């Protein structure tokens, strides 16, 4: 059977205030064609379907239209949709009964039994081959928040043991046990997750990293060794995890930030036979709207060279506005140049391109630099950075770990609307 793995669509996302609707709609049309071309049997969308808790109406329309077209063109297609940390788990769950009637499995929060305990059977989704026979069992694990995890009798801070990681491990263990109970010998065990993974073993706890949903980086051994494929979401760059070719992030299908311009955006086509992965192929997603970064690669160029490069940009005069390239300009200034923005805008005036970001770095010598330190844009900072800066304004040194952890918890409940 053939599985198509994608994630991190972030429908409804804007890039510095500009809509991505056109790009998303082109991607979804392209995806439908690939499902047909490669005779795909099952589609897994591993979280962050939407960019926010309350998706804008056009992004809901896109998603519903996509599902309706997919089921009309490919009635046998199994579709599995998981909540990511950006999605509202309960909002996705609200549509789950309706979409289940269409053959689309949606898992927002981990399912619970009437007594409030985790119900691993609720995560299991059978995936069918072209003959309509079950060829794989999917443990459709969504993004897990600390509140979803079992309370473990482990003190935080005990060396080598992280209660959050152990909690995630328990849920996967229970779900895999439930899957094995109905797994036949020639059926593949497929898992999903929307989480931050680390490649190494559990011992390098010092390297643990908190990303997004406050979940500690997970070791790859939380997944069973006999899993045929693990479809992950959360990281936007496509990659295998821990050197295991069958444990993969598909990455996002489009660049969600300007510095993701060079990522190999793709979806992953996986071939399963007799319970294991026998082939895989990355399908590169065509770029519907080009991104031009001047000079690119995170570097800054002098103003005259920048203006020259802007004027020389090859642009398609016939392109409709929705296809006009996004342009990022990064300028290094030896001295202040108050008219720079006007000069940049003039270089693009009347031309089919959209300036999304003008970054300026002052490069004068020490004294001049202190007077003209480049202003930091709030939008360039993560909430953790802002907290860090505030702490350092009032205290010596770094914020203590327990304070950072408390901040992370508050941040997460705000971000997740909990
Ligand atoms: Mn995510």
TrEMBL record:
GO terms for molecular function: 3'-5' exonuclease activity; endonuclease activity. The keyword Mitochondrion does not apply. Residues 1-237 form the Calcineurin-like phosphoesterase domain. The keyword Phosphoprotein does not apply. GO terms for biological process: DNA recombination; DNA replication. InterPro entries: Calcineurin-like_PHP, DNA_Repair-Maintenance_Comp, Metallo-depent_PP-like, Mre11_N, SbcD, SbcD_C. It holds the Pfam family Metallophos. Residues 288-394 form the Nuclease SbcCD subunit D C-terminal domain. SbcCD cleaves DNA hairpin structures. These structures can inhibit DNA replication and are intermediates in certain DNA recombination reactions. The complex acts as a 3'->5' double strand exonuclease that can open hairpins. It also has a 5' single-strand endonuclease activity. Heterodimer of SbcC and SbcD. PANTHER family: COMPONENT OF ATP-DEPENDENT DSDNA EXONUCLEASE (PTHR30337), NUCLEASE SBCCD SUBUNIT D (PTHR30337:SF0). This is Nuclease SbcCD subunit D. It comes from Azospirillum griseum. The gene is sbcD.
């Amino acid at each position: 059977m053939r599985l198509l793995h994608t994630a991190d669509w972030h429908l409804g996302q804007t890039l510095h205030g500009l809509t991505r609707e056109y790009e998303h709609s082109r991607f979804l049309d392209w995806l439908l064609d690939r499902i047909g071309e490669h005779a795909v049997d099952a589609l897994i969308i591993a979280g962050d379907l939407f960019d926010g808790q309350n998706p804008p109406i056009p992004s809901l329309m896109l998603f519903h239209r996509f599902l309706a077209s997919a089921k009309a063109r490919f009635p046998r297609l199994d579709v599995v949709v998981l909540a990511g940390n950006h999605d509202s788990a309960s909002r996705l769950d609200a549509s789950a009964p309706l979409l289940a009637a269409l053959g689309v499995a949606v898992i927002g929060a981990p399912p619970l039994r009437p007594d409030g305990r985790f119900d691993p059977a609720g995560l299991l989704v059978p995936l069918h081959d072209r003959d309509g026979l079950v060829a794989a069992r999917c443990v459709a694990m969504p993004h897990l928040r600390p509140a979803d995890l079992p309370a473990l009798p482990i003190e935080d801070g005990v060396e080598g043991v992280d209660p959050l990681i152990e909690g995630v491990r328990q849920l996967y263990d229970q779900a895999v046990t439930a899957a094995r109970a109905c797994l036949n010998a020639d059926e593949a065990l497929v898992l999903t997750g929307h989480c931050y993974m680390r490649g190494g073993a559990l011992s390098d706890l010092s390297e643990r990293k908190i990303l997004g949903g406050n979940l500690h980086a997970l070791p790859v051994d939380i997944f069973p060794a006999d899993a045929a494929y693990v479809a992950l979401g959360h990281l936007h760059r496509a990659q295998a995890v821990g050197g295991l070719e069958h444990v993969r992030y598909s990455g996002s299908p489009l660049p969600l930030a300007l510095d993701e311009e060079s990522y190999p955006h793709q979806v992953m086509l996986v071939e399963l036979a007799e319970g294991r992965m026998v082939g895989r192929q990355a399908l590169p997603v065509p770029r519907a709207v080009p991104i031009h970064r001047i000079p690119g690669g995170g570097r800054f160029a002098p103003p005259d060279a920048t203006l020259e490069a802007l004027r020389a940009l090859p642009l398609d005069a016939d392109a409709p506005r929705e296809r006009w390239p996004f342009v990022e300009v990064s300028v290094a200034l030896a001295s202040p140049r108050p008219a720079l923005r006007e000069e940049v805008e003039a270089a693009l005036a009347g031309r089919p391109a959209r300036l999304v970001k003008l970054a300026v770095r002052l490069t004068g010598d020490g004294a001049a630099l202190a007077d003209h330190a480049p202003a930091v844009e709030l939008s360039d900072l993560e909430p953790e950075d802002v907290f860090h800066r505030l702490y350092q304004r009032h205290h010596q040194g770094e914020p203590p770990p327990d304070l950072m952890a408390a901040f992370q918890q508050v941040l997460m409940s705000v971000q997740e609307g909990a």
